[in-house]
Amino acid sequence: MRMKMSHLAAIGFFSVGCSLSAAAEGAGYAPQASQDYPQNVYWGDTHLHTRNSADAYSLGNENLTPIDAYRFARGQEILAHNGMKVRLKRPLDFLVVSDHAEYLGGYYRYNVDDPMVTETAAGKQWSGYIAEGSPEKMMASFVDSMSEAPTNPPFPDATQSYIWADVARTADEYNVPGLFTAFSGYEWTSMIDGNNLHRVVVYRDAADKVVQRPPFNAQMSRDPRDLWKALEEYEVATGGQVIAIAHNGNLSNGMMFPSESVDGQAIDQGYASLRARWEPVYEVTQVKGDGEAHPTLSPADEFADYENWDADNIARTEQKEDWMLKHEYARGALKLGLAYEEALGVNPFKFGMIGSTDGHNTFSTTAEDNFFGKFPESEPAPERMTNAMANDALWQNWRLVASGYAAIWAEENTREALFDAMKRREVYATTGSRIQVRFFGGFDYGEDDIHKPDYVTLGYQKGVPMGGDLTRDAKAGAPTFLIAAAKDPLGANLDRIQVVKGWLVSDGTVEERVYDVAWSGSRKVSPDTGKLPAVGSTVDEKSASYLNTIGATSLATYWQDPDFDASQRAFYYVRVLEIPKPRWTTLDAAYFGLTLPDEVPREIQDRAYTSPIWYTP
Amino acid sequence: MLNWLRREPLVHFLVIGVMLYGISLGLSEGQEGAVADDKTIDVTKAALFSFMQHRGNISREDASRYWARLAPAAQTALIESYIEEEVLFRTALAFGLDQNDYVIKRRLIQRMEFAALGLAGRDLEPKPAEVRAYFEANQSDYIVPEKITFSHIYLNPARYADLEELQSTAESWLFELNARQPGLADTGEYGDRFPYYRRYVDRDRVFITDHFDDGFAEAVFTQHVNANWQGPIQSQHGLHLVLIQDRRTAELLPFSEVRDQVATEVRRQQKLAASAAYVTGLKSQFDIRVAPVLQP
């Protein structure tokens, strides 16, 4: 059967039989676990905006609220800005509505004369701009809020608390333990010299705790260390728990995984400890580019050149230079982390990986066949092939990446279980498909273990899952791994499983290698190149369809590191590739009858990236 | 970064800020703030007090008292302030900026919608009886679909010589399992690695169909809870022996469990309805004529 996407209609209607309903708190939602390890992978988005974000509102998302975000995520139908009725085929399991903290909710409330905003110093200043005929200054105040010396005052505490309470209570209202998790959250929008340092902050807690401190915003400080301090203060004051998730290192021009803090001090043990504590996971893939690897850093990796956005920084004020890349991409950062751990005793960049959307139109859509863009201007319409972001001021919208998902292994779908899994990094990223991946590391796995039906039990019993740590075992040889991947049940077959290893050499350099460890069909690794041949492609561009006649529905393997040196720090993570599918732009072209510009890729191989397992001598 | 912010349509904020004020006057104060003609500005007591009322978010009585206490210079400044706004507003109207620009139109509409919510739906809190009635009328929204909890032992056809061996292995295991009755944790030696889960807890039919297929889902959802292993059941992946531990038919959640959720939804819908009713009321004040060519 040809996997023809009904595309825009695909997101349309797919009855799930019944709308979401709920059990009361504590009543019967806990799975009857016969084993005490995570048996379910939950799918969600930790990074989504609504009209409460200043930029989203400025660019046309005037009506969609956190309530709409939750309803959409839970499978309800919502009217999009382009006039289409939109509904997810498969609802999400969890969502973080993460609106920008700077003037959170403020533009909308100003525009409708909410006195809690219009009567603030900021509101009055905005009114002044308008009176003097410079309304653009009001809109610029969002960017101004991230500048070194903002000229617009922040909202007073009372206004922030008033809006924040509404946000947190709405999250509580839509949080249904066991069925759908709504986390309270926001985005701290730090930008220095046009470089992106943004973090999404996610709470484990209910509104009674969350409301006790309004969000930490860039007007308070643009230094991540101050954000961490504020998170600590929140935890101490409330007894709650919170984490920060950075994203878009690719637009940070070398500042996301830096060698020095924002005031020029070399990264020290204090920085490393705090970063490791507060930032256990990194958002590695999203609408503004995929950030796992870069071809300049990994010339031997033929799959590194994937949806990278590497021209400049987030404000488009400075061109990219090669030295920046290792401080921007996850693989580079994981490698830097090994060197820092050797030098400082703490690894500042010991993060797991998740994906999310960063959608600003309130639609969490991750896939090629349901991609609803970033802002209203990039919702499905013929124009989005040729227009550019933010009223044609930023990047071409065809570059947008239909990505990604945060996948979390947990015992149950609750705030507590999902949050705790993020803290222990038992999570992974996909670029939009629901690829299931298990990854275990240890010293005692046998070659046959992966074929056993209870390999998961063995995985936990004899080793650690993704996100875990291995330490030197004098008796044992090289670490062994159990890896299993299954295709998205509604998606494309799998091409291959790879293990990405980074290790610290005694001279202080950090090396990397990508191993093909399992693949479909009877392909053989070429003795000349050491490479596994490409899987091929069944994509038919004209009809924007593909066939699952190549690839495998699932792949699994036992793997032992053939190049292990027990004295070397190392990390291992898994990358799973799907067979090629039509990229969303190809689907658009077929649906709207467009001719694709030459520079637009026709196909895409969606993928998954697991959190690493680290080896420490 | 600043450059894109300077582009249109942001310039319209000028107009909007001013026009919203005009709208709000018109909304709650009838004709007091309305434009008499294009080039005359009557600063009446009513218009000025209305202006103060909205500027300061105070009551009409407070506006009157406040005015009386103001020093003459302050009174003059207030009048100037009113005149400035009115001039800008009139000028914007004279430019026709309210007429043709869709962006402005949208923003004005949004302001009206917000006002409508405020006027019609202020402090809406649904009554318990309304919540209950909504629940009764929309029970299908509060039905938990049928769910199943089961474990399965998977036989991967690729690991058997032929179908006959596959089938006979499944049947002999079935016999053995039911004779031995091992605990779930002790069934790890039976079968092959399954691509998805070994154990499914409280999952609905859609989920089971995704991981197996329609036929398998139909089969397990028509079996009964049983201490014995059942099967083999076929799916696209191969054969499965299943131990069905819990199966629940679709059930309507008790009202007591979902009261808060229902209230949230009622509140949301009441706000929308109030706003819609307000707009309907406005419509009745207009003579609306749709061109015959447009009528179906």
List the helices and strands and how they pair.
The complex is a heterodimer of chains A (617) and B (296).
Chain A: E1 2-4, E2 40-48, H1 54-58, H2 66-73, E3 78-79, E4 85-86, E5 94-97, H3 106-111, H4 115-118, H5 121-131, H6 136-144, H7 157-174, E6 181-183, E7 185-188, E8 191-192, E9 195-196, E10 199-203, H8 207-210, H9 224-238, E11 242-247, H10 269-278, E12 281-286, E13 289-290, H11 330-344, E14 352-355, H12 389-392, E15 405-410, H13 415-423, E16 427-430, E17 436-442, H14 455-462, E18 464-465, E19 469-471, E20 480-486, E21 494-504, E22 510-519, E23 545-547, E24 554-560, E25 570-578, E26 581-582, H15 584-592, E27 603-604, E28 607-610, E29 613-616
Parallel strand pairs in A: 2-5, 5-6, 11-12, 12-14, 19-29
Antiparallel strand pairs in A: 1-23, 2-15, 3-4, 7-10, 8-9, 10-11, 12-13, 15-16, 16-28, 17-18, 17-20, 20-24, 21-22, 21-25, 25-28, 25-29, 26-27
Helix pairs in contact in A: 2-7
Chain B: H1 2-6, H2 13-29, H3 45-56, H4 60-69, H5 72-94, H6 97-100, H7 102-121, H8 128-137, E1 143-144, E2 147-155, H9 163-180, E3 199-204, H10 205-211, H11 214-222, E4 230-235, E5 238-248, E6 251-252, H12 255-284
Antiparallel strand pairs in B: 1-6, 2-3, 2-5, 4-5
Helix pairs in contact in B: 2-3, 2-5, 2-7, 3-4, 7-12, 8-12, 10-11
Label this structure with key terms.
heterodimer, A: 617 residues, TIM Barrel, disordered N terminus, B: 296 residues, alpha+beta, Chitinase A, domain 3, four-stranded antiparallel β-sheet, 12 helices, 6 strands
Tell me about this structure.
The complex is a heterodimer of chains A (617) and B (296). With 617 residues, chain A is α+β, with helices and mostly antiparallel strands. In chain A, 22% of the residues lie in helices and 22% in strands. In chain A, strands 2, 5, 6, 15, 16, 19, 21, 22, 25, 28 and 29 form an 11-stranded mixed beta sheet that branches. In chain A, strands 7, 10, 11, 12, 13 and 14 form a 6-stranded mixed beta sheet that branches. A 4-stranded antiparallel beta sheet of chain A has the order 18-17-20-24, covered by helices on one side. Mean pLDDT of chain A is 92; it is low at 3-34. Chain B has 296 residues and is α+β, with helices and mostly antiparallel strands. Chain B has helices at residues 2-6, 13-29, 45-56, 60-69, 72-94, 97-100, 102-121, 128-137, 163-180, 205-211, 214-222, 255-284; strands at 143-144, 147-155, 199-204, 230-235, 238-248, 251-252. In chain B, helix 2 runs parallel beside helix 7, helix 7 crosses helix 12 and helix 8 (128-137) packs across helix 12. Chain B is elongated. The model of chain B is unreliable at 1-36 (pLDDT under 50). At the A-B interface, helix 5, helix 6 and helix 14 of A face helix 1, helix 2, helix 7, strand 1 and strand 2 of B.
